[in-house]
User: Fold these one by one.
Assistant:
Number 1:
Amino acid sequence: MKYCSLGSGSRGNSTLIASHNQAILIDCGFSRKVILQRIEQAGLSADALTGVFVTHEHGDHAKGVQALCELLDIPIYASFGTARKMAWIEHPLWRCIRSDEVVNSGALNVMPVVVPHDAEEPLQFVIENAEGKRLGVLSDLGTLTPHILNAYRGCHGLQLEANHDPEMLMNGPYPPGLRARVAGNFGHLSNQQCGELLQRLHWDGLRHVTAGHISEKNNARALVSQTLSLILGCSTDEVTLLEQDAISGWLQL
Ligand SMILES: [Zn+2]
Ligand SMILES: [Zn+2]
């Protein structure tokens, strides 16, 4: 299994995951044009896609989903709440997914996991291939729950949210209401919460850790790498930080 971020941050998120010449996307928060360019940049044909899994209805995750799936004639996998918000209930490509019910798409099995976030029915995903390689993709959650810690155990790759530094958020440009939303239990993970999560999920089989959804206004990339490299006991440049406007390159599990 290999994976590649096609961009991550408050202006758009998408992750491409491939195994045995088939691939899925987690989210498509970019226009169809941009996402097709980035898939091509990653060296993959869009025809390899067997479906798009949508975490929730926020624009930075769902913006380009429908246009892309209609073009390629592939399923949109989303919870009932997400589908209702996106007006997909009557859409012929929508497939309803539920927390903890594994869905097969091409060469990959995808397990949806419930997370606390201020959306209708948000899910995040653990992806596994036939060889038992596991990738955990986890962003847009305000707090850690026992259920999440349990579901993401034993992953060989982790793509985690490190959204903000609490001090920078408090002193940053956001109005108080938005600040409280981001820092709240249904907002986004701070660097420290991401670090705590990584500490709990760290095991011998873990090969790649990437940090994403990094705020451009309320975080500094150096703080993210510092926090995570300390936990991993590696140098700061061994932690991969995802970028908003560039693909990450493939990571192999
Ligand atoms: Zn988001
Ligand atoms: Zn969100």
Number 2:
Amino acid sequence: MTVIDSHTHCFPDALAPRALSKLESNEALTPRCDGTRDGLLAVLDRDGVDQCFVLNIATNAHQQDKVNEFATQINRYQNRIYSFGSIHPDYPDIRGAAKQIKEAGLYGVKLHPDFMGYDIGDDKFTPIFAACCEYALPVVIHAGIDPTSRSHIHAKPEDVARILERFPSLRLCAAHFGDACDWEGVLHRLCGKNIWFDTGFSALGMSVSGVQKIIANHDIHKIMFGSDMPWEAPSETKRFLEQLSLSDEQKRLIYGENALRFISM
Ligand SMILES: [Zn+2]
């Protein structure tokens, strides 16, 4: 069985120390590696993970081209990395950016409303979702609470539900089980719908019983193992998931098969 971690991040070697220390002090998080591509892959080796999605994030429109350049550089590295590009809502040519991401062979688009400065329900994101539908690009959004913004949630389950209604053909993953701290909202607004979840950061914030309810009420084919490296190691997420009573078949889907299906459009 090929194990795929569907939620990781890494940075160019020269930028990694600064990127990590900034996030570390802002978010009070402790990185599990040095934030580089090779540092990430070393932890995946240690934790028995074969491949990963790297979810790159453009935190402003000016950075976007550079971020997507890096995403393209690391894509398919050692046949282990499925790299995602990013589109910032302020970027002047959103449709062109989606086309470029598709043509570069990247596997999807990552959006992080907290880091991008807009709520996910803001109309600024509408052209991005439309372009990703047009170019058949899967989208992963950060969903729910983020350590940088504990009082203002930028992507609530009800906001995500409205996106699904508006873009029924969109292949969308709400990271962190849709919202690490609001499993009831996820249960009522998202479970059973055409949405994917990843398990990112579950060990560090979620309740086992909440996650169990989400899994019991959602399509098991739409749940993907993801750690959120460098902020949580795959071995930590695995230990959390071991507390759920998953069958071998469910594990096979969650630890790899579902991720491959998510990116095959
Ligand atoms: Zn993440």
